[in-house]
Design goal:
226 residues; alpha+beta; six-stranded antiparallel β-barrel; disordered C terminus
Amino acid sequence: MFTGIVEEIGSITAVEPSGDGVRVTVTAPVAVSDAGHGDSISVSGVCLTVVDRGEDWFTADVMKQTLDMTTLGDVAPGRAVNLERATAAHGRLGGHIVQGHIDGTGTVREVRPGAQWSVVRVGIPSHLAPLVVDKGSIAIDGVSLTVSAVSPAGDPEPWLEVSLIPETLTATTLGTAGAGQPVNLETDILARHVQRMLAFRTPAAETGGTEENPAASAATTERGSA
């Protein structure tokens, strides 16, 4: 579990084939300072497991599904990545609850620099649009951000906007993001749970009750037939 507060910018130093996946090595002096074998580290939003480590680096395996679902699919030496260690149970939740499980990728459409911050518009997959709300939380490349604007419902090319303060611009890779760049997206876990529960909601016509209170309707039916 993470909070989306990036601790350092690391760099991919090696990518080696490993079955149908790859094994990556990342420079990460802060992240490995107290990391051990089997610990989790978020790499640009992707939760990876430490399988080896040195004084300022760690190695992790990336399976095929992760390569297919995230921007790590074309990872190469020299790429800068956002890094965050798993949060401690007694630590502060500085951002929001981030699992490191990417829902899909988006694409930066435009960056509008301001005097103190930048506004970034990101095109997102249509199936993720219902899970993104204005003033809600979103993790982009592992960075916890507040959504500042969203496209209208039904927009055939949905998007979201976030406003990046100077600290985010300097402390994360989003500071150098430009139009056309793919980014990892993780929507709010609470929104995903609500969407899943609604998918199992039974229509009133099938229950003989009402959507508002099907249990009460069922009880009335039982009393009437007694």
